[in-house]
Write a structure and sequence with these properties.
homodimer, 117 residues, alpha+beta, Arc Repressor Mutant, subunit A, DNA-binding
Chain lengths: 117, 117
DNA sequence: TCAATTGTTCAATAATCTTTGAACTAAGGG
DNA sequence: CCCTTAGTTCAAAGATTATTGAACAATTGA
């Protein structure tokens, strides 16, 4: 099973901006960015400190639909990654400046638990 | 008379993003960016092709309150400028990448009329 | 002073977006 | 198989946002 994602050239700037204008979603992206290059993708439950399961499902769908994240279905889990290359190609510098700016605000530092995957 | 503007360090990233997530406001910023360095500031009526007078008043207030634009009151007119230096200082690279991205979408090319001020 | 120009405010409506709980699906593990 | 885990879907409620027209205020030019 594979979820719908916009192609790179379908990624819309106003949509990306409004999606990242929500503090919960911005925090999710900041957390994903910290993790980049690291070994592990993150599954949804890693973000439970930011909202209820249902609410996260909603916000993570928004991020995926806007083309900000990629969601991989593995069993009953969904693994999330930032679509950095696609975003960098389409809107050079945007993600970096947003992530840097998001760090200015306090992004909760997920309790580091065991790495999975 | 002078209108309230946030100080540079009061400018909030999520607020800037959600304010620029609106297509009308993004178009206004793109138009202001084109005009930068030019001699003339723009008054509100220059944007009438993007919405009604009342509606523009609403959107322009949002841009000002978020710290994206500066509004100078001169007589009955309001002259708008991008707060580029403040934004560049607080969120380096953000404005440039957004303006560049906005140009990808079709930003209406204001009918060039007589320069005032 | 009168009238036009520029733009705001207000209140109402419409449209979107967010949050929630209950019920559900789909894998796994034992 | 049954039970747990991981996450979605749905519908309802709540909260914000956007759009509109009517009325208003302030400045400016004739």
């Amino acid at each position: 099973m594979t979820l719908p994602h916009p192609t790179t050239d379908q990624i819309s700037l106003p949509l990306v901006l409004s999606v990242l204008g929500d503090p919960t979603r911005l925090a999710i992206v900041a957390l994903l960015a910290r993790r980049e290059g690291g070994k592990g993708r993150m599954n949804c439950s890693r973000f439970l400190s930011l909202g209820s399961k249902t609410n996260l499902s909603y916000h993570l769908a928004k991020l995926r639909e806007a083309g900000v994240t990629r969601t991989e279905v593995v069993g009953t889990q969904r693994f999330l990654t930032l679509r950095r290359e696609d975003l960098d190609q389409r809107f050079p510098g945007l993600l970096d400046s947003i992530v840097a700016g998001a760090e200015l605000a306090a992004i909760p530092r997920l309790e580091e638990s065991v790495e999975m995957a």
